[in-house]
# Entry
Amino acid sequence: MSDIHPLILCGGSGTRLWPLSRAHQPKQFQPINGEGSLTFFQSTVQRHRSDLFSDPIVCVGSRHVQTVGRQLREIQSKAHIITEPVARNTGPAVLAASLYLAGAKPDAVLVVLPSDHVIKGELNRLIAQMHDAALDGLVVTFGIQPSYAEKGYGYIMDGGRFDQYPGLHRVESFIEKPSTTIAQSLIDTGFAYWASGISMFRASKLISEYQRHDPATFAHVQAALQSASPLETEAGLLLDERHFMKAENQPTEKAVFERCKDIALAPAAIEWDDVGGWTSLHAIGMKNESGNVTSGDVVLFDTRGSLIRGGERLVAVVGMNDVVVVDTDDALLVTNKSSAQDVKRIVEHLVTLKRREAENHRSQVTEWGRIKSMQAGPGFAMDLLSIDSGKTVTLVGEEGVSRTLAVIHGRLQLVGDHTQSELTPGLSAMVAIGKEARLVNTADTPAEVIEISCGNASALGLSGQSLAAIAADVRAADYA
# Structure
């Protein structure tokens, strides 16, 4: 059974969960139940850690490789990371993982898992039950009994039971995101299931289906894997962009499943939600006697049926029903639940305005600690760097930009070109224009330092981008 390999897909931007989810820190890497809880991605990894499964394979865009590595280490999980240089939807990513695995284990079975869903129930028991069918060459899709007519989901129509595989059904057809009226008519038949995005198959089966239905994409992804390079800081590889970008930009369902004769449906009696917006988080959250779901520092009075998510400050809500209030360190969202799906319009507007809040949080977790943007403008940026014990921050040299560092807590070593000095609270140092330096925390406690970057606007960017933020991989290739 350990030849079942979880394949966790980490694409997507989750714009409907703004301001929690942003382009550089999307939904799957955010905590489900507030600060200190597991992220959606970590919860997915933990759900499938047992003797039933091998170490997971994680497919992620190059922008988020460091985040994946850090969050895996936080839960002490090993994984094989396949990095996509550009986004090409789920199909090429799943094919790349299948090729990667089939080289050593042709009969190994993959179970494909979106990283941003919330699931409760015995999914793993059903996966184990479907193992023989997958080994025999069936492509198993997992369907959810629909509880309402959702027009944003795909539907799988039940084509009747398999005699030789208990619990497994044939697929009559796939229906992609029907209107609400049609969705209700499908549900009324009693044979419709929501498509969960979870599937299971032998690696060699997925490869053969791609060779049959899209040989060009197969060739491009195979070449991208053959020319892949090892990751510098994580266990895994980076697919070759020249070849991967030529793959057809399609989900696995359209590229393979809808064309496959050996497709099957496993109805899953589980609680499932793809958390497509704030109303979903309210629906799955732990409610108090007034139907409210809260996290953080929150005080409510005469408020019912609401989701209130606090941040660093107190959030007080009085006399409101069915609202969503989400507070972060640099943005506050207030909406009624009926309009919560329109949050993506706010994000689209912020993008047109080139607002930083569409892309980044003011605070960013890094491999070495945390960066918090204090103030920024044309030609300057001031940031608070919190550096964990034993960690090193590399401040990348940038033409036309100088930096001043002032320690406010802890003890740091500043290492530059043939120089080294100790910085303690009250002391400051300057890093000359274009020079690289390293801040090393050799103490047993975290250190905090103010970094002030000054230079021409073109060097720093219109918003005054932090040089430490650049070192934290903010300049990595775009992936959405």
